[in-house]
Write a structure and sequence with these properties.
Length: 252
């Protein structure tokens, strides 16, 4: 399959920063190019927890075998933090990100159009970095100030793939706090709650059209967050990988 050539939450907000699972897996494509992110295992090796505001309680991340799937379980209770891994991905070679995720349900009072409602049952973050000459002076100054306060690890921007409670699948908008984070709804509501759902997205295309062709992936993170709505949520993630062909994603 040929592909045409061609933002996160508090950590970015502070700077201004379907398929149902059938239980069957599609066969892998012969000679497929795949980059598997660190598999979830006891102790979550290769992953790091990131708390970005000491005033906000962190989530709980635990490894477990969940319906025979090696996974991370996220428990969020009026809390927010990330489970992240640094990555180096050639988006020309392996532009598709695929994964499995599940949620206990949708958040009742979330509303991604507002700051007070900027929570999601599940989120997959893809943080990016940009060449300096691709950023305007205003953005560079904004990022410089934020990094002086919050640290140099703050990315230049991010694409957020979310499980929402209101907006339709395919809805896109800037984060309620800042356009450095772009939100894309891939699942919504409760119809698939309580089961593993396979997901795939052409991240290469998304990053190119939202941030430009020179943008590069810096980090991938997973979470659920409830610090704005003060709700509770459980979510799971498993088998994150980049591949050259969407058909190489298990479950699709």
């Amino acid at each position: 399959m040929m592909r045409p050539q061609t933002k996160t939450h508090r950590w970015l907000t502070l700077i201004g920063a379907a398929l149902a699972s059938s239980g069957l897996c599609a066969p892998l494509i012969a000679n497929a190019k795949t980059v598997t992110l660190p598999p979830f295992a006891a102790g979550l090796p290769g992953w790091q927890t990131v708390s970005l505001d000491s005033a906000v309680s962190p989530n709980e991340f635990t490894y477990q075998t969940w319906d025979d799937r090696a996974a991370v379980k996220v428990i969020s209770n009026n809390s927010m933090s990330l489970l992240a891994t640094d990555v180096t991905i050639d988006l020309e070679e392996t532009p598709y990100l695929c994964w499995w995720w599940r949620v206990a349900g949708s958040l009742k009072t979330a509303d991604m159009r507002t700051k007070s409602g900027d929570d999601f049952s599940a989120r997959v973050y893809v943080s990016i970095e940009l060449p300096d000459d691709q950023m305007g002076l205003g953005r560079r100054l904004q990022l410089g100030l934020a990094r002086a306060i919050w640290g140099s690890a703050l990315p230049d921007g991010a694409v957020n793939y979310v499980w929402d409670n209101q907006q339709a699948i395919g809805h896109e908008q800037a984060n309620a706090y800042t356009d450095l984070a772009q939100m894309i709804v891939l699942q919504t509501g409760d119809s698939l709650a309580g089961r593993w759902v396979p997901q795939v997205r052409d991240v290469g295309r998304d990053i190119s059209r939202l941030f430009g062709p020179e943008a590069k992936i810096k980090q991938v993170a997973v979470t659920t967050d409830t610090d704005n709505t003060a709700e509770q949520m459980q979510a799971g993630f498993a088998e994150l990988r980049f591949t050259d062909d969407a058909a190489n994603c298990p479950g699709l």
